[in-house]
Amino acid sequence: MKPFSLKERLNGFWYAFKGIWLALQAEHNFRIHLLAALFAIVIGFYFNVSKQDWLWLTLAIALVLITEMINTAIEQLVDLVEPNQNPLAGKIKDMAAAAVLIAAITSAIIGTIILWPYFCLILI
Question: Does the predicted TM-score (pTM) go above 0.85?
């Protein structure tokens, strides 16, 4: 085992931020999810949601962004390993995309449960 190196640990953060930047540059869906997240954050501040609601909104946002990045990594890995059309590769990519869809639907439900009462207050 190598000895602990602060420089190597800090490089790990650099690589992680580089991955986020790459996703922002190349992945349209990641940008769409990020815009939706920013919209939810703005609405949360506008309605001054509770600390507990912020925890749920933060978790929902993170769930979508994390699954989108994992989906992207899986898709790129599959393309690297199997550049030709392959039914199994297609299934793998479809299942990874389905994970993002489930995360997005779950997050939309969480957002609706949290924010709907605030919208109702301004409608009344």
Answer: yes
